[in-house]
Amino acid sequence: MYTRVLVFAIILMMLSCSSKSGDFDVRDYGAVGDSLKINTVFIQKAIDACHKNGGGTVVIKDGIYISGTILLKDKVTLQIEQNATLLGSSNPLDYQSIDTFVDATGQERGNCLIGGIRLSDVSIIGDGIIDGNGAAFTYENIVAKKKELKINPNDKKFGINRPFLLRFVNSSNVKIKDIRLRQPAAWTCHFYQSHDVIVDNVSIYSHANQNNDGIDLDSSFNVEIKNCTIDTGDDAVCFKTTSPLPTHHIKVQNCNLKSEWGALKFGTESMGDFYNIEINDCQINDTRGGGIKILSVDGANIHDIQIENINMNNVDMPIFIRLGERLRTYRNADKQTVGSISEISIKNVIATTRNIKESRISPPTGIFMTGTPDHKIGKVTLENIAITLPGKGLISDLKEVSEQIDKYPEYSFFEVLPAYGIYGRHIEDLNMSGVQFDIKTKDERKSIVLQDVVTSTNDTLKIK
Questions:
Q1: Lowest mean pLDDT among 1-10, 142-151, 408-417
Q2: pTM: predicted TM-score of the whole model, two decimal places
Q3: Is-contact 223 192, C-beta < 8 A?
Q4: Is 419 exposed, middle or buried (0-12, 13-18, 19+ CB in 10 A)?
Q5: Closest C-alpha to 114, from 159, 203, 176
């Protein structure tokens, strides 16, 4: 009898150890990958059990699993296997808002498919797909969903908080690796006041709705983004500060980017500072917005930015730098004073602009930098930059370039600029070396126009 009890105890101990080191399959908790069942509760049960067990891996495999908001827990890895898809529910009532805020467009944000607050040591990995089902949140489909659920058609709040795909708030030691992220209803990845984040070999495709950014680093630090492929209808990689806390110590490298608004963008939400940011060895293709956009309009001091080895093909405006005085606030923060932009280094850039028919500005300009009459941009270094442009600018098209000091900072709002190569205005210290422009057809505008630029060095500017 004693022997049987001892054997049974050993078996229980082995099972307990196996549970601690094993995976947590969501199917064991009731989830079904039939593309029909709403699995929110069951996936959450698996995550909670994994966390209670001291951490581990929650696995989603074999099928399409529909879900609303699921919240990760400390020391939990969510693994989506190659043959599995986590698909966002089409019902707005299936989502939760974490740390609700209002973005620069005036829209309420905070809902997400996967996320959490004050997390540590969490990962999302695997070769599978997380799909936000963003098309379900278009205006037409929300109207249809109201009718289906018998919700008052005059309820203007239903569905307005379009869910992000991934959202981490005040979190640390976060890793996103190898996963394929698809079609969110709003931003794809939002890291707010988080640190020690790695995003590696992630594929993003986001064109299902509006405001569909790829990766947003918001008042966060110690972040590395590498080996990613990002194709978005809005900004691809965007640095934000919707709080007075800075975004700093960031590295972006070896990424392939495509965007309808901005491939590499600082702002527009820019209350806190941006500094110690390095971007290198990236390819930017078919981007209707700017390739590199550095924008301080809400009080941010942007400095110590190094951008090197960037190839751009078919981009509206390769480089746009704007210091403005919009001074918008977020999250009930106090209003900031006007910020600054200085110690910006952009080196080794090869770019071709879009043709006249496709460009948002016609004809395009390669580089546009402007401060305001009362607040000049500081030191900017442009080195070894070659830009090919279509030309075709006419003197008759030129008008006085407005200041727009407190407006939304978009280069296309300034219309045709007086130079096809570089137009710089309100700058303290501009250093150029090895800058080259290749014009395919005649352009009546000047190659370079500088206004209210205190100090300018121009070494080996070449025109072809």
A1: 1-10
A2: 0.93
A3: no
A4: buried
A5: 176
